[in-house]
């Protein structure tokens, strides 16, 4: 199988990369295992210096990396530049704080001296998605490398040039050979890598079905996993919300990255008393969004990453309308060769509709009307997913009280749900388990070893 770079803005094939051969894979696995021994023993401050060097290279080549993302998966160029900078910030964060996060912890016990030390597991396999083709990789790689693990990247098949660019970036930063390696493999060959004894842990960001398969395969080998899967985040708008602010952030939260984000707001749960006003304002803002060439900085929305993804989104929209949802705006693909979909709103979404239960991974917002606060919380938690959620109210104490009731990994009050290197990130329920980022993230792929001395 070859990997193709197909520009979703026009359907044209730009590059073709050959898949890794079986002998090539064997060499890389052996190389990663051998490199893990020396890399894990290297002083953590030296590892941090190389991660900081990766941050510098990211910034020096920001425009090149941004354009690569835009050409491979259609990300608007301004957002692509921001993604590169976020990767650099993540590297800086772990380069600065890694030594403190992994320092020995002395604990009083019945021993003369007892402590917990944090040691690398070995080699971590990362199975990463296309929607944030740089950030998703650096989100796992920066802490894993600082902790002393070697990393294997199996990236999404539609962003092969991003995968190869990231491997080259780490090499240019001075990382030893095989400390970070890209595996150019189709999904059908990943199970064998998970089973390989030279791989010690697996992290996946992707769909719920993929998460189930990876968890089952890794579990059979008794290997640690971290899963960040889908999300259908609630965006609760209460009657005392600042509607101007709520609408402004609602547009960003739903349509950032052309709606292709796990932590995008997808279910807008609005109290009935203000629902008509919110929908009117929201529609005006959504219809003002510009859709077109993602290299044009004036366009807020680009194409979806692939035509098949656009087709699946439209199927969900059509079926939801047939089930009783009301199309407020958009709800159709754009013509032409690109994988464009109009920014869309569905109103009066109710239980039993696809737009109520499924994750709509694209530029479509679902409006669900709630009777009161309690009903809004009930609706928010009436989901198999539990990644993020937000609450909009001018009473911050009320907002915090509701945020604590939401069944999710991150709840924001009057703010955009986002990932931040300083805060743990991850979900519950069908959105996965484990945490990335912060101190918790760097400790996912280490052995927290107790040492007891008398």
Structural key phrases:
single chain; 454 residues; alpha/beta; Aldehyde Dehydrogenase, Chain A, domain 2; seven-stranded mixed β-sheet; six-stranded mixed β-sheet; globular
| Count of β-strands | 20
End-to-end C-alpha gap:
58 Å
Total helices: the number is 15
- The low-pLDDT segments are none
Range of strand content: 15-25%
CATH topology of the largest domain: Aldehyde Dehydrogenase, Chain A, domain 1
Largest sheet data = 7 strands, mixed
Overall average pLDDT: 98
Shape: globular
Count of discrete domains = 2
Radius of gyration: 22 Å
- The CATH architecture of the largest domain comes to 3-Layer(aba) Sandwich
CATH superfamily caption of the largest domain: Aldehyde Dehydrogenase, Chain A, domain 1
Return the CATH class of the largest domain.
Alpha Beta
Please identify the structural class as seen in this structure: alpha/beta
Helix percent band:
40-55%
Q: What topology, given as strand order, has the largest sheet? A: 12-13-14-11-10-16-17
Structure description:
The chain has 2 domains: 2-229 and 431-453, Aldehyde Dehydrogenase, Chain A, domain 1; 233-420, Aldehyde Dehydrogenase, Chain A, domain 2 (3-Layer(aba) Sandwich), CATH 3.40.309.10. 42% of the residues lie in helices and 21% in strands. It contains 15 helices and 20 strands. The chain has helices spanning 22-41, 44-60, 62-73, 77-101, 135-146, 160-172, 190-195, 208-220, 243-255, 272-287, 307-322, 354-357, 373-381, 396-405, 438-442; strands spanning 2-7, 12-18, 105-106, 113-120, 123-127, 150-154, 180-182, 201-205, 224-228, 233-237, 265-271, 326-329, 344-347, 364-370, 385-386, 388-392, 410-413, 428-429, 432-433, 446-453. Helix 3 (62-73) packs antiparallel against helix 6 (160-172). 52% of the residues are buried.
